[in-house]
Amino acid sequence: MAVRVLLVDDQPLLRTGFRMILEAEQDIAVVGEAGDGLQALDQVRALQPDVVLMDIRMPRMDGVEATRRITGPERDGPAKVLVLTTFDLDEYVVEALRAGASGFLLKDAPANELVQAIRVVAAGEAMLAPSITRRLLDKYASHLPSGEEPMPDTLRTLTERELEVLKLVARGLSNAEIAADLFVSETTVKTHVGHVLTKLGLRDRVQAAVYAYESGLVRPGAQ
């Protein structure tokens, strides 16, 4: 079955461009559009999309609040949110990830990256672009812990290997890259990642990466 996508952006030309790209794919169907966060909430309830392609800066209700309502405990359906950002202008991307977004994508990303991101998020994975993630977290380092705070009790539930894996996830490494770094199989890495998410009560790798920084386990700019 085709992935059902809702386009949310206050610029009609951008929505048209995204629609043209996505509708060229046999496994993706654009089921609707919205020009702001409030319209997005209505469309999510009415159309039950699988993925919401969400702009951040919009009138009436921004993408952060809309994301929080779409993915929160009172959610009306299974929709996942993929945030669109211009990066240099959006100070709220980290907030959107905390709010429940499954990833983010630059607005000027190539068409193939947009299509792949939709598929990844629809499959229940997180779209975590390593270079952009590190730049974002470094950019907002002043809002994150200094690393001098004591380790949260929740982190103490993780094994040493699980802590290693969490640190590498926070650096933006893929499962294959983590496997190569730790000299284990990808299957083993997937198992560790699953344990980390379960023990910390997190939904996906994006939330794990943000949590690692917020908890002070990883410090912005550290290797």
TrEMBL record:
<dbReference type="InterPro" id="IPR000792">
    <property type="entry name" value="Tscrpt_reg_LuxR_C"/>
</dbReference>
<feature type="domain" description="Response regulatory">
    <location>
        <begin position="4"/>
        <end position="122"/>
    </location>
</feature>
<feature type="domain" description="HTH luxR-type">
    <location>
        <begin position="151"/>
        <end position="216"/>
    </location>
</feature>
<dbReference type="InterPro" id="IPR058245">
    <property type="entry name" value="NreC/VraR/RcsB-like_REC"/>
</dbReference>
<feature type="modified residue" description="4-aspartylphosphate">
    <location>
        <position position="55"/>
    </location>
</feature>
<keyword id="KW-0238">DNA-binding</keyword>
<dbReference type="InterPro" id="IPR016032">
    <property type="entry name" value="Sig_transdc_resp-reg_C-effctor"/>
</dbReference>
<dbReference type="InterPro" id="IPR001789">
    <property type="entry name" value="Sig_transdc_resp-reg_receiver"/>
</dbReference>
<dbReference type="InterPro" id="IPR039420">
    <property type="entry name" value="WalR-like"/>
</dbReference>
<keyword id="KW-0805">Transcription regulation</keyword>
<dbReference type="InterPro" id="IPR011006">
    <property type="entry name" value="CheY-like_superfamily"/>
</dbReference>
<keyword id="KW-0597">Phosphoprotein</keyword>
<dbReference type="GO" id="GO:0006355">
    <property type="term" value="P:regulation of DNA-templated transcription"/>
</dbReference>
<dbReference type="GO" id="GO:0000160">
    <property type="term" value="P:phosphorelay signal transduction system"/>
</dbReference>
<keyword id="KW-0804">Transcription</keyword>
<protein>
    <submittedName>
        <fullName>Response regulator transcription factor</fullName>
    </submittedName>
</protein>
<dbReference type="Pfam" id="PF00196">
    <property type="entry name" value="GerE"/>
</dbReference>
<dbReference type="Pfam" id="PF00072">
    <property type="entry name" value="Response_reg"/>
</dbReference>
<dbReference type="GO" id="GO:0003677">
    <property type="term" value="F:DNA binding"/>
</dbReference>
